[in-house]
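Lecture notes, unit on protein representations.

Consider one protein chain, 252 amino acids long.
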Amino acid sequence: MENKVEVIIQPITIRFSLFEDEVIYHFAGHANQQLDNMEKLMKIDVENSTLLDCNVGFLPVASVTLIRGEKNIIVDPGAHHIGTYGLLENALNQRGLNFNDIDIVVVTHWHHDHFSNLPLFKNADLVIGKGELDWAIETSSELEVKSKTEYVNNTLEVSSDSPLELAKGVVAIHTPGHTPNSISVIVEEESETVGILGDLAMTRNEYEKREFSHWYTEEQLHLLNSSLEKVNTYKLTKIIPGHDRAFNITKK
């Protein structure tokens, strides 16, 4: 059975800040403007601020991707609000599916805009990077991790040693950088080799030009570049970034 890859919820990020006790929302059309360039607009000194105290918050919707083939697989079930308000359910229903039809949910990394709707998929196995849940407990809480993972069937971890085959023509690989144990999914489609990268590449510019967020450390940048070199060994023809529209790779 041939694999079919489809982004069922397209990404967008809205930023917001606090001004004289009012929350002000900021919106831009291009992914690069939605992300780091908003800090430039607000004249935030990234050398003296952190991501969490810079007064430009995130309301992100990451790419939610459906793979149909030997198994039904969701990559990154998305932010809380797309589940709570029915958007994710509607996206599946429009394709003749519901939550119970999903066999596997891949969480590329443990950030809220990528994992929050995991509990909706009660019949699915969870696939995640080896050690990512331990990191999640350290950076958030054991209670949060337990509340999101307690309903899954099995938890399958992707190690740095070898890819994990999820179905025929679908593998998950270890691609650290954005978080310590981020993973990506490689899918052989009929005429494409698709890389679903989560936030290994948040935008097209990050993939093509290696222009990464100014919030990354030098260690993270090294890992990001190494992981992108790794995914490129699969001779990808199409990329699905975490926070930008899918695009085809132009062969030079």
